Hints:
The protein is 65% helix and 4% strand.
Amino acid sequence: xxxFVDNIDTRSAESIIPYxxxxxxxxxxxxxxxxxxxxxxxxLETQLAEAMGWLYIRYTCNTADQEAKQAFEQFVxxxxxxxxxxxxxxxxxxxxxxxxxxLKQEPAYDIYIRRLRKQIDLFQEKNIPLIxxxxxxxQEYGKIAGSMTVHIDGKELTLQQAQDLLFDPNRNKRxxxxxxxxxxxxxxxxxxxxxxxxxxxxxxxxxxxxxxANYRDYIWDELCRFDYTPGDCLQFHEAVARHAVPLxxxxxxxxxxxxxxxxxxxxxxxxDPLGRPPLHPFSDEKDLIERTKACLEQTxxxxxxxxxxxxxxxxLDLSSRKNKAPGGYNYPLPVSNLPFIFMNASGNLRDVTTxxxxxxxxxxxxxxxxxxxxxxxxxxxxxxxxxSMSMELITMxxxxxxxxQKEDLQRAYAFQKQEIIxxxxxxxxxxxxxxxLYTHPKHNHEQRRKAWHDIYTRFHDHLTDWHDLEEYxxxxxxxxxxxxxxxxxxxxxxxxxxxxxxxxxNYQADRKRALQDYMSALKPGxxxxxxxxxxxxxxxxxxxxxxxxxxxxxxxxx
Length: 558
């Protein structure tokens, strides 16, 4: 780091305030002085972001660790409110500078300054305690979900571990696992409903106090979604229902026929339809890392180098265990410029694609390391997920390192195709549900249940039989952590999936060129518009009905 921030204690508000005050008092008498001011501000903010990152990582790695929980909450409750107040003051100081318009003319700064303007417009000091409360509450979901276990065959399993049994050829075994997982989730149904109640109420209050009709419209501006509107998302939902759901229906019909069952049940979707045993692409975490490194090496040596750097730094926590938060993430750490990968591997093929997905994010982070400001690395999710979802696809030719037998490899490809076909409807479903949640802020639990029922029915296949399983169906949304922790972060998966499929098509035609375009698109971070980044990758930023229909043809040919 440079010399502006020296031995800062990120646990103490008193320690960080002098740095903020220095930035506020400092005269800015030239364009170069403004750039230096932004650079020093960046240094302070990256120190705080790194500290926050490690606190979050340590808590999610063990949600039962009370010391880690208290440290995380202390930062959120004591440090972040101070940071939010000073951030607003610094934003205003930047815009008071007569040199800000000249700086805006430089391409790298244009988008950043637009985002600062949006922060100024959104800021309400009275929202700071509400935002703090939301950030603390959001972590409750991980604590609740992370403590969920089931007992099967005398063993206590996390839900992630139990889900492996859904790949079992024995239908009774799959049913037992599915029912126990669903019943365990239902045990906390009321607590999860009430947690969402509180989050929804707080978010709605934040939005209305900032002058918005609802939280959906507020979050749109907070996320700086300059490139598309809520109306575009509603059109995306309609296009997916019209063109992707029929592919899901076709998959269901084929699976039912291959399995020879009179009714397809929810526990029939992951198992091999011909009754073959589950694929075992790796034995343990060490083996997963070694095989993934070999896979990445075949795809591009730089990708393998990135994984090795993470391993050497101890920035990998991949295996599922009790009290570990659910899900997976790649957490950028802006001081060390080396991210942390967290996931819940339990031994199945989905773990492979999850790690490859997170490695796409990690490669992206490392490619952006030399950008001068951390804010340039804060890419919109539509770009971040393009990096990760493309990595899943471009590594497919090297999957033989996990599954050397041709028959197993073909099964893996078929599974990946199914996952892609399932992704677009599920993304549309979760996004549509969130649109409903936040545009109906006064709804009750029963109205919420019915809304989910109708939305899920619209986007799920029409063959799966939910008779006697309606309660599982109607609370299926509670498994999706994004609804609790990162509201409205989900449509990006659908947009990026379309982009990744287009990039995959280019990769099949010219591997060297597609890889070059992929890396060239990721390296500049968020110093260009989303459309420009997609164009650099050799694809279109487009999620119109016509484009969705066109891209889905790529899936059918996989």
